Amino acid sequence: MKKVNLTYQIKELQLNAIMEELEEEVVEELSTGDLGQLKAELSSLIGRTNNGIHANVVAMAARKRPQVSFESVQLLAAAGLETHEWYSVPIRFSEFGFILEIRKILGSENEVEITLVEDDTSEGTMGASLSAFKDKSVNIVIQNNQIDLLEGEIYIDSEGKAASGDGRLVNHDKELIVKNSLTLSFL
Up-side HSE of residue 58: CA atoms within 13 Å toward CB? Predict the structure, then answer.
């Protein structure tokens, strides 16, 4: 014999009855086309809220994620000192132990794939550099002389040895010339 929880079933019946009643009330109010009473009731509720009923509620400032920047990374010689397509070659952050690869998605004007891989010459450094972001998704911004070049989001694996995601090129036009160095920030 199957056991039945009568209390649960009675609550379900009551809930269904209340929902049907609410649905009928809404349909009736919408069919009459007179929403004045509903607007007046809403205004009354808003007025009570503004008149100090919730005066003891304090707005909390949004918690910001700390920003971590990897600055003054020199562009590789293959990229040249000045280039329009700065993202066309891998960018080495040797001090921090990783290489940034950006590949433009075919058929799109400014969408890119972003990958961070461990630099073979500095084993273990990438994991230490990205330890605060392991097993998390983070927003990424790349700048040159305080001008945003790329915005995106990447997921950093649990060991901090690989990361990938997608983003978009910002200020992607022929007049923009990237010079000397880039700044990579995690937000």
Answer: 2
- pLDDT tens per residue, range 95-113: 788 888 989 888 888 899 9
Please give the sequence-ordered ranges of beta strands (E in DSSP) within 78-157, or none if there are none. Answer: 82-83, 91-93, 98-104, 111-118, 136-144, 147-156
* C-alpha–C-alpha distance, residues 172 and 165, integer Å: 19
Q: What angle do CA 17, 21, 24 make, to 5 degrees?
A: 140
- Of 89, 96, 58, residue with least CA distance to 75: 89
Tokens for 172, please give them.
Answer: 């992607």
Return the C-alpha torsion angle 106, 109, 110, 111, nearest 10.
-40
Partners of 178 in beta bridges = 83
Q: Is the whole model's pTM more than 0.70, yes or no?
A: no
- What is the C-alpha separation between 31 and 23, in angstroms, rounded? 12
CA 160/CA 128 separation, integer angstroms: 8
Q: 68-186 adopts what CATH topology?
A: Elongation Factor Tu (Ef-tu); domain 3 (2.40.30)
Buried b (16+ CB within 10 A) or exposed e, 36-69: eeeeeeeeeeeeeeeeeeeeeeeeeeeeeeeeee
